[in-house]
Amino acid sequence: MEVRCIQSPTLSRIPPSRLMEKTLFLRGHTGMQFSTIAPTLRFKSHNVRPSGSMKIKSSTTLDATSSDVGNKDEKLVFVAGATGRVGSRTVRELLKLGFRVRAGVRSTQKAEPLVKSVKDMKSEDVGGNNPIDMLELVECDLEKPAEILPALGNSSTVICSIGASEKEVFDVTGPYRIDYQATKNLIDAATSAKVDQFILVTSLGTNKFGFPAAILNLFWGVLCWKRKAEEALLASGLPYTIVRPGGMERPTDSFKETHNLTLSEEDTLFGGLVSNLQVAELMAFMAKNRHLSCFKIVEVVAETTAPLTPFDELLKKIPSKGGEIPTQKAVEESKVDETKTTIAATAKATSAQSPFVVYEDLKPPTSPTPSAPIFSGNNKPTVTVNEKPEPKTKLLSPYFMYEDLKPPTTPTPSAPTFSGNNKPTTTVNDKPEPKTKPLSPYFMYEDLKPPSSPMPSSPKY
Length: 461
Prior knowledge:
Elements: E1 32-34, E2 41-43, E3 55-58, H1 66-70, E4 73-80, H2 85-96, E5 100-105, H3 112-119, E6 135-139, H4 148-152, E7 155-160, H5 174-193, E8 197-201, H6 213-216, H7 222-236, E9 240-245, E10 260-264, H8 276-288, H9 290-293, E11 296-303, H10 311-316, H11 328-350, E12 374-375, E13 381-382, E14 417-418, E15 424-425
Parallel strand pairs: 3-6, 4-5, 4-7, 5-6, 7-8, 8-9, 9-11
Antiparallel strand pairs: 1-2, 10-11, 12-13, 14-15
Helix pairs in contact: 2-8, 5-7
């Protein structure tokens, strides 16, 4: 049997229906077995992967479930345009920060340079792990909305670095289809998946007209369609980050050795250069630090006169356009503070602050609250009070039980009545005068009293 290299030109003569294009070069030579019956190549099942191989999936075999929407993997990032100049570098920078990357590609054949560059990475660069094990390829056409949501899976962050090819100058619909419509399809799917952050790469001049935007817009209005994609992201409600880099055609990866990165607010810069690697490093840092990058639009260039400044200090100077994303430490601290507040409120409600709360009868009586006056027929206001019983209070004197010690009540005279001789007759209430005890101990000895002197009678003549 004759075995040919996978890059052999004669391979193109094999019928596509018999050639497994999706796993041809991505699987590598490990796990490959040949058939002596036909000249085609066969591979082992994807379920059994030898060491050093990678995951390859198609959006047609994936299914987005409700659990993917609710359970996001904080370490999983979906990168659209992973085979491009910015996207491929972004994948490697994400792997260096410990992320697992799900790379969305149109065709796995075009991902061969990306896979080779990841295999060339050292394990020390990715925390001692095998770099190829942290990369997953997913075939996904962003112009077909039905394929996007299953491809996202449970990714927590989406990075979009797609753009119409500059080589296809005569493709009139390219900027509209790729820079706007395909990007909008990805935004809609990310909104349905409820991702935690969406990072979009556009360009300087997307919200300006005139030089140099007029020159770039000669390419079938590419900046206008990029601006429409930005507006779609702003209207989606997702936590967004829009990166507007300067020219990235000429600078190489060594550009960062002589030019330091600078960030500016939206609609500030008119031109400038920056390398693809510098933009990739910035976006990977944004994915790692969402609390510093969300709800911001940044314009990125590199200058020789700019000082070397850490990314976090550069991002802090850019104002946020919406809500702020707290750090993981801040979220944990807020949960602790909330728990302490709840415990304190519960303790305050269940425990009395004063030892005298049990003595309700020591509180002063509550004065009744007057209600609005009601006018009667004579136009005089009648004030009523709330029918709230006045609290019963205890008598403050210990002698309230000795009713007989109280002084006698003086009878109240009634109105005089006139008799026949016109003399008023005063009557009192028929209330018996209380009987009093004699004050002398000798009242029982009647015989000790002196004899009464006889009253003289009138003389008789």
